[in-house]
Amino acid sequence: MILYDANAPGCNPVTVRHFILEREGLSLEVEHIDLANLANREPNYLENVNSRGEVPALRLDNGTIITETTAICAYLDEVAASGTSLFGNTPEERAETNMWVRRVYLEICSPLLTWWRGTEDAVQFYKSHRVPATDAQEWMRGQTHKGLERLNIDLEGRVFIANGKLTMADILLNAFLITLLRKITWADREDLTNLMSWRNMMASRPSSKAMLDPLPHKIG
S-S: 17 plus which of 91, 150, 211, 213, CB 3.0-4.6 Å? Predict the structure, then answer.
């Protein structure tokens, strides 16, 4: 397998890196895409890897290309030769994990990222490659606050988000928050004590630091 990783700490590449760093039993090669210079929008990448220009992407041994962050992680979780699943060991655990992945993405990650993509710096960077939601920034900001506050309540008495252990839900949210809160100070809600305890716990994991750098060319 070949993972097309980025040379910059974008939310989606960081999420997959975070997952790989936490998931044992994986064996794959890694190619780095120059995301900072939009190499993912060049004809070679669009024609041979992902016509939507998204990074990361995963090329399977049979040539099939898998895109979308959670789909890549779910596949890697299935094919890992050893280690503990980060989605769950039973249908019930996997359902709970996927429920929380959906919740944290829709309620926090997506509106936070969409808000940032409407900023002047992001608009200039993406140029004509994305349609900025500048008119929706106020709504996205409010939705993010609501999502963070809701999760703070949900985390009462919990260490992890789902199943009482580290799962894809923790990895997804942690990757997005660590990546984006360096740029978006208004979402750094230190008043949400349960959420802050969870953030501090996740930040102490070695993978939370290592995920900001590109992966080595060989895993496993």
Answer: 211
